[in-house]
Amino acid sequence: MVKSITDCAVLNNRVKMPWLGFGVFLSPPGDTTYRSVRIALETGYRHIDTAKIYENEEDVGRAIRDSGIPREEIFVTTKVWNSDMRAGTVRQAFDLSRKKLGMDVIDLYLVHWPVPDKYVETYKILEKLYQEGKVRAIGVSNFLVHHLETLLPQVEVVPTVDQVEWHPWLQLPDLYQFSREKKIQLEAWGPLIQGHGAEIPLLHEIGKKYGKSWAQVLIRWDLQREVVTIPKSNTPSRIKENADVFDFELSAEDMAAINALDQNKRVAADPDNFDF
Ligand code: NDP
Asked: Smallest Cα–Cα separation from 126: which of 71, 72, 178, 85?
């Protein structure tokens, strides 16, 4: 049971990754991201999720340095973007991310999307970066079971993580089961359904029982499903609210009621059909 903001999932290579992280997709570059990450770190988050395409790696790096918290106490994820896979510039993209973040070693580097005909060769480059000690862990994002089934026989290092859109409307039972069997840690992006969680009456009802918000119920549900979760906010009160999820536990009945909301419904792009 996850009891504190510093509790960690132990990845398949024994690297520890905090169950709760802070996402910065659509977090505007510059002061907004810098301030949000500073507040997140002051609140106690020790895991930040960025990507080259978010264009805010510099702000994340600066906020981490200025926080005064030792670098090794903060888990940082970034990702290689699709255009770099297509252009054959994965190594250059990695070096640029390191430079922007101002970090020699990245904790987790992900293949951002399963770009057809490119994701296996891209992952093989990540394997090399891992073997060279430039990343503590490598993984994938937006990979469905069939992508993993294609990848696994062709590579040596089993991905530590698969970061996918995951929330009550989209629980991907096949991937949930498969990833557990293969010891690939599932990580939820869009855990608040990009804000749509507010539209689900059940989450408000359950929240009332515990004195918690619908967003806190969602984050707690992820943790109890043993899924790493990275809610994003640029609102200081929400950054704190989303971290205040360690003093209650959803009952088995409430977990089951949320589990029953699955309708295979995405609110963002489909890994089998994306045009970017
Ligand atoms: P989330 O599900 O985290 O939702 C973010 C939205 O919810 C924002 O509009 C935010 O508003 C709002 N919000 C946050 N907290 C609360 C709260 N307590 N009450 C009400 N509203 C709230 O969506 P994301 O898409 O940002 O996913 C999280 C992270 O996952 C990203 O930031 C990114 O790091 C990662 N991600 C990865 C992807 C991938 O392809 N690998 C794709 C998408 C995301 P506000 O900021 O205004 O407070």
From this structure: 85
Q: What contacts 94, CB < 8 A, 6 or more positions away?
A: 80, 106, 109, 129, 134
Q: Which amino acid is at 95?
A: D
When computed from its CA atoms, the radius of gyration of the chain, rounded to whole angstroms, is: 18
Which atom of ligand 1 is nearest the CA belonging to 110?
41
CA 104 – ligand 1 centroid, Å:
27
Find, among 105, 157, 160, 166, the residue nearest to 133 by Cα. Answer: 105
150 neighbors 124 (Cβ within 8 angstroms): no
170/266 Cα distance (integer angstroms): 6
34 is catalytic: no
Q: What's the DSSP call for residue 105?
A: S
Amino acid at 232: K
- 3 state DSSP class of 238: helix
Report yes or no on whether pTM surpasses 0.90. Answer: yes
- At residue 57, φ and ψ (nearest 5 deg) are -60, -40
**Single-letter residue type at 115:** V
Catalytic residue among 45, 54, 109, 130: 54
- Tell how strand 161-165 and strand 185-189 pair up: parallel
Positive or negative, the CA dihedral 111, 6, 244, 235 is: negative
- Ligand 1 atom nearest the C-alpha of 232 is 3
Q: What is the pLDDT of residues 125-158, one digit of tens each?
A: 999 999 999 999 999 999 999 999 999 999 999 9
Q: How far apart are CA 15 and CA 19, in angstroms?
A: 12
